[in-house]
Design goal:
The chain has about 240 residues and is mainly α. It is built from 10 helices and no strands.
C-alpha cells in the first residue's frame, strides 16, 4: 500500500513539473510572439505531455531490489571446514641434540684461562736492546703528499686582479676562493710546480683536484704571456658568465 501511494505521489509530482514547464514555455512563446496564440497553446501542450511521460519514466519506475533472495531458493549451506591433518612430531636430529651440549661446554665471557694471569703480569716488560751492530730504523721521510703552499699576495698588484674566470674550470665562486688564498694573477698560477699544484688541489675546499683536472697551469701560462684560449675568448665575449 505504501508502495502504491509513493508511486502515485511520484507520478503526480512529475506531471506537476511537466505542467510548470509547459506554462513557462507558453509564457515565453506569447512574449516573444514568434508563434501565434493557438500555436503557442499547442506547443506548450506537447511539451507538457512529453515531459510528463519522460519524468515518470525517469523518476517513478520501480528498480529491482538487490540482495533479496528469490522465494524457494535456499542459500547454499556453508561448507564445513576441512580438518587439518595431524602433524607427527619431527624427531630431533643428532646435530640439534648436540647443540645444548656444545653451548654448555663453550667458555663463558670473562672466564680466565690457565696462564692468562701470568701473561698479563708480564705484558710490556720485554724490551729489545740491540747492540751496536743492530740495524737502525731509517729516519722518517717528510710527507710530500700535501705539497707546499705557493707564495700568495696580500692584495692584487696595482690594485687590479686578473680575470681568473678566463681559466677553464674557474667560476665566480672559485675565483673568490683563490683571491682569499692570495692568488690574483695568471703568472702566479703559471709558476706553480708539482708540489704547489698538489697543495692547491688538496686545499680547494669543495673543488679538490680541479687544478690538475682542468690543467690550470698550462692555461695560465698562455694567458700570462698575453695569449688567448678558446675558453677565454668566450668569457670575454660574455658567452659564459
Amino acid at each position: 500500500m505504501a508502495n502504491s501511494n509513493s508511486g502515485l505521489s511520484c507520478s503526480a509530482g512529475c506531471w506537476l513539473m511537466a505542467a510548470g514547464a509547459g506554462v513557462v514555455a507558453l509564457i515565453l512563446m506569447l512574449t516573444l510572439g514568434s508563434v501565434g496564440f493557438i500555436g503557442s497553446i499547442f506547443l506548450s501542450g506537447v511539451i507538457f505531455v512529453v515531459l510528463g511521460l519522460l519524468f515518470g519514466f525517469l523518476f517513478c519506475r520501480e528498480l529491482p531490489q538487490s540482495g533479496v533472495a528469490t522465494a524457494g531458493t535456499a542459500a547454499p549451506a556453508a561448507e564445513a571446514p576441512t580438518p587439518a591433518p595431524a602433524t607427527e612430531p619431527t624427531p630431533a636430529s643428532p646435530a640439534t641434540a648436540a647443540a645444548p651440549a656444545a653451548e654448555a661446554s663453550a667458555v663463558k665471557s670473562g672466564t680466565q684461562l690457565p696462564g692468562e694471569e701470568e701473561l698479563a703480569s708480564r705484558k710490556g716488560e720485554w724490551k729489545y736492546e740491540g747492540g751496536a751492530d743492530a740495524p737502525k730504523a731509517a729516519p722518517k721521510a717528510a710527507a710530500s703528499d700535501g705539497g707546499s703552499k705557493p707564495e700568495g699576495l696580500s692584495e692584487p698588484r696595482g690594485g687590479k686582479a686578473d680575470n681568473l674566470k678566463e681559466i677553464k674550470g674557474v667560476g665566480p665562486k672559485l675565483e673568490q676562493l683563490l683571491n682569499s688564498m692570495g692568488f690574483y694573477h695568471f703568472d702566479q698560477i703559471a709558476s706553480w710546480g708539482p708540489a704547489e699544484v698538489a697543495w692547491v688541489d688538496e686545499n680547494l675546499e669543495g673543488f679538490r683536484g680541479r687544478v690538475t683536472r682542468d690543467n690550470w697551469v698550462e692555461q695560465a701560462k698562455t694567458l700570462a704571456g698575453g695569449g688567448e684560449t678558446e675558453f677565454s675568448k668566450r668569457v670575454e665575449d660574455g658567452d659564459v658568465y
